[in-house]
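Reviewers of the previous submission asked for a worked example of the structure-prediction workflow described in the proposal, so we include one complete record here. The input consisted solely of the amino acid sequence. No template or homolog information was supplied to the procedure at any stage.
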Amino acid sequence: MKIAEVIQGKGAEVVTISSKASVADLIDLMSTRNIGAVVVSEDGRLVEGLVSERDVVRHLTSAGSKVLALQVAQVMTTPAVTCTPEDDLDAIAHTMTYARLRHLPVVIDGQLTAIVSLGDVVKSHIDQLTDERNHLLHYIHA
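From that input alone, the workflow returned the following structure tokens.
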């Protein structure tokens, strides 16, 4: 299975934020949209980095509540690890698991097209296993 199939099932909407935005604005955006990570991009196409709840929490230990006034550029992870729609789902699952990544922007020719989460990858695996199980049960009972 390819990442393109995961995107086809979940949609390609990507939430982005400027690197100049405040962490307070970032938290508001993530809360409003009920998401755990945001792609950092000035134009919505070029991936400058990725910022997640985990990035904010890490900076809380050193900056305390002052983290809210920091710019996204000061807390984001860069460079962001990305993938393409043609990447194999199993390979991406391996990368995400062993690199401890929860979100990967999907790019084509350097341009942002979607984002996949570890939850999307797991859901696709579960759906695939369920389909295989149902086909086998149908075969056995037919």
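The mean pLDDT is 94. We consider this example representative of the routine output the project will generate in years two and three.
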